[in-house]
């Protein structure tokens, strides 16, 4: 009798749990779906309201306006380049520092750690940062996206915690076989750390893909404008674009400021959504494993 009561309680809890999670998932996904159907609706028709579950008057005019701007493709090239190169270099450099910080025989390891930790909470401000980048001749160059982001203290703490969990016997046996520290790092620690490295890579990739503030402050050349900065300008200039003389009259009748903005949001969101599922399986595993030990 007691086991039947417990089974009913478990079933009730399961039902409530799945119901809550389903509602939470719908609340999370619906805003994205709302933007998508709005971008696929005729702009003038959308202004009437009532577009909640499917496009009432299907139209691709909003995407035609967004995709015909040549700055979009320049932004895609810059964003893809900085995301790929920035992620690879940042993960590799941060992993090297994390490996060194995980070694107990590193001279000055504790002072290094506290210096890194200090920079996590305190910074010099935007103007001194700008002056440093200017003195390094990074302003108005593609490398202003890459070099300042080579090292992340937060990611170093996560990777350092993971490296310290790897049995010391692995390092000792490799040392006995004559392997140096760099070879041990590349051939042993990197392959063993694939989940947490994928997690850090995902964080870096999302940061680079969504970043626009550094481009807005540190660059003025159009060919260095990433996708997010272009889309931000397009969203701000949507009212001008919708009435532009370069947009054919028949297209102007099918677009609005709001639907152009929605189309721009979809264009910027879809690429990272396509990449995320391939790394999602590493996300929770790498973060949890890397946070077990300090």
UniProtKB/TrEMBL annotation:
The chain crosses the membrane at residues 12-37, 80-100, 112-131, 143-163, 184-206, 260-279. The keyword Protein biosynthesis does not apply. The keyword DNA repair does not apply. Pfam families: BPD_transp_1. One of its GO terms (biological process) is transmembrane transport. It comes from the Bacteria. One of its GO terms (cellular component) is plasma membrane. Residues 76-279 form the ABC transmembrane type-1 domain. PANTHER family: ABC TRANSPORTER PERMEASE PROTEIN MG189-RELATED-RELATED, POLYGALACTURONAN_RHAMNOGALACTURONAN TRANSPORT SYSTEM PERMEASE PROTEIN YTCP. This is Carbohydrate ABC transporter permease. It comes from Paenibacillus antri.
């Amino acid at each position: 009798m007691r086991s039947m009561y417990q089974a009913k309680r478990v079933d009730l809890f399961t039902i409530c749990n799945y119901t809550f999670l389903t509602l939470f998932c719908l609340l999370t996904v619906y805003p994205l779906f709302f933007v998508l159907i709005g971008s696929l609706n005729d702009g003038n028709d959308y202004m009437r309201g009532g577009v909640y579950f499917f496009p009432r008057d299907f139209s691709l005019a909003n995407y035609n306006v967004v995709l015909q701007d040549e700055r979009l493709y320049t932004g895609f090239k810059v964003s893809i380049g900085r995301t790929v190169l920035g992620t690879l270099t940042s993960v590799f450099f941060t992993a090297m520092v994390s490996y060194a910080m995980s070694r107990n025989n590193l001279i000055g390891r504790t002072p290094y750690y506290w210096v890194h930790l200090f920079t996590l909470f305190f910074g010099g401000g935007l103007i001194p940062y700008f002056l440093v980048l200017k003195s390094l001749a990074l302003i108005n160059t593609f490398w202003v996206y890459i070099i300042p982001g080579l090292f992340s203290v937060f990611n170093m703490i996560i990777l350092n915690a993971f490296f310290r969990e790897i049995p010391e016997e692995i390092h000792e046996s490799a040392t006995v076989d004559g392997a140096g520290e760099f070879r041990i790092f590349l051939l042993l620690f990197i392959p063993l750390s694939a989940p947490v490295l994928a997690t850090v890579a995902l964080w870096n990739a999302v940061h680079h893909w969504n970043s626009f503030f550094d481009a807005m402050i540190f660059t003025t050349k159009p060919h260095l404008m990433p996708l997010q900065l272009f889309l931000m300008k397009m969203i701000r200039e949507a009212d001008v674009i919708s009435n532009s003389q370069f947009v054919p009259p028949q297209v102007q009748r099918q677009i609005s400021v709001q639907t152009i903005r929605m189309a721009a949001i979809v264009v910027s969101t879809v690429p990272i959504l396509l990449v995320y599922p391939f790394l999602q399986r590493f996300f929770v595993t790498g973060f949890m494993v890397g946070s077990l030990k300090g």
